[in-house]
Amino acid sequence: MQPLPGFRDFLPDDCAARNYIFARWRDVARRYGFVEWDGPLLEPTDLYRKKSGAEIVDQLFNFIDKGEREVALRPELTPTLARVIAAHEREFKKPLKWFSIGQFFRYEKQQRGRLREHFQLNCDIVGEAALATDIELIALGIDILRAFGFTEKDFVVRISDREFWTELLRSKNVSTDRWDELLQVIDKSEREPRAKTIEKLGNLADPVFAILGEGGKSEKLEQIVDGLHTRGLSDYVDVDVRIVRGLAYYTGVVFEVFDRAGKLRAIAGGGRYDNLIEQLSDGAISMPALGFAMGDVVLGELINETPRARDAMKETIAAEHKIDVYIVIAKEQRRADALAQIQQLRDRGYRVNYPLTAEKVGKQFQTAEDLGASLALLYGDEWPQVKVKNLATRKESLIAHQGLPDSVAKFFNVTASA
RNA sequence: GUGGUCGUAGCUCAAUGGUAGAGCUCCAGAUUGUGGUUCUGGUUGUUGCGGGUUCGAGUCCCGUCGGCCACCCCA
């Protein structure tokens, strides 16, 4: 039996890498004053059908449940967030800074960087329309990637503004029901032949290409770059009005993060969705909001392809997985005595391991080495003394078993402060 | 969903249509209680699965499942 296509098993090394990513996500989000929340994995299909646009519904992992409800495994978190905010708006001071780490799903043929399941960090700020909010959120995205050891040479945030384009459409008297479609064409203009884009744009082709040709000047986007410059983060961003993003609910600033080499899919993306909460509350509550999401799959690929980030991850994981003490049972008669002390050491919070069955001493030391233990405690003929070996220096000493937990504590306090 | 390509031991890969192998990993040893290196020995396969052609198929053909790549799309 294999896992379903697009779903992963997380063997210990994979799980360690996943937890490493989660830990940095959580750490930096909290640094920015975000609090953690979560929602259900399964939602009514209608939540996405109405709010995210038709394209997302084609790729929903959805089915009919035993109560004959149409349900979908969540493809993204923003509609859930909007629903939750609409229902609990009065319970929290504004602006809300919320983050969430969870699993998301899509029903689509898998490829590199795109599975049917992945984990995402979502960070959202709700209840504040000022541009300072957009800057804060983009800064958070940058700092999260910096926490993995990436620099401005590894990734870039391309920022854009949907209003930049909707103002043009309005000035050209384009009917609003064509806006989504035209924004998609602009979004794809980078990847498609120019002739095809011109054909799709019709009489808008000339103004659009004129704007793209001169790089697209936007006062709002320049203010964002200035705001990031103040924080020393402006090397991480490029203004690029071609970024529009696929989701229908974005209303203002949008941005996507890419690797500088341009080899991978987008690492993260987000933007402002000032109308979504109002839509989901049927007009009862109106609140500006914006957010972004970062997935574990592409991020993991970039970590593995960037030596600095990969080494940092390996070192961190190795250090976290080390045990403190390995117990060598040299004489089986001492096993009971050893177990009594193992319990004491574990009660004090040390990571302690020992052989479950009788093993040769040499093999036990090998295991201590493999597990990354700092100390080995040998229980044998020396009893009631215990032989303590510093595995780094290979120095040994004898200590009476009654004083052993304190000696171990002293050893680790000294090494910790050294 | 469409097209291309690949599928051999836990991993990386060999094997002109003629008895399925190597390296690494793993396990056990190398004069009774000490980590690395080295040495010796050992385990592991319905060659993804199912049909077909052939005296004989890992190899050729068809189907199917899975991976990868491109398209589509991208939360």
Q: For the residues shown, what is the average pLDDT?
A: 88
**Tally of individual domains:** 2
**CATH evolutionary superfamily of the largest domain:** Bira Bifunctional Protein, Domain 2
Largest sheet: 8 strands, mixed
- How many runs of DSSP E, i.e. beta strands? 16
Q: Globular, elongated, flat, extended or rod-shaped: what is the shape?
A: elongated
Number of helices: 16
**Unreliable sequence segments:** none
Assigned CATH architecture of the largest domain: 2-Layer Sandwich
Q: Percent helix among the residues?
A: 40-55%
What does this molecule look like?
With 418 residues, the chain is an alpha+beta fold. The protein folds into two domains: 12-316, Bira Bifunctional Protein, Domain 2 (BirA Bifunctional Protein, domain 2, 2-Layer Sandwich); 322-417, 3-Layer(aba) Sandwich (Rossmann fold). The chain is built from 16 helices and 16 strands. A hairpin with a 5-residue loop joins strand 3 and strand 4 (70-73). Helix 5 (131-146) crosses helix 10 (219-230) and helix 12 (296-305) crosses helix 13. The mean pLDDT is 88. The protein binds one RNA strand of 75 nucleotides through helix 3 and helix 15.
Structure in a nutshell:
This protein has helices at residues 12-31, 45-51, 54-58, 78-88, 131-146, 162-171, 179-188, 194-201, 205-213, 219-230, 276-280, 296-305, 307-321, 335-347, 361-370, 404-417, and strands at residues 35-36, 42-44, 61-64, 70-73, 96-105, 117-126, 155-161, 237-239, 253-259, 268-272, 289-295, 325-329, 352-353, 375-379, 385-390, 396-400. It has 418 residues and is an alpha+beta fold.
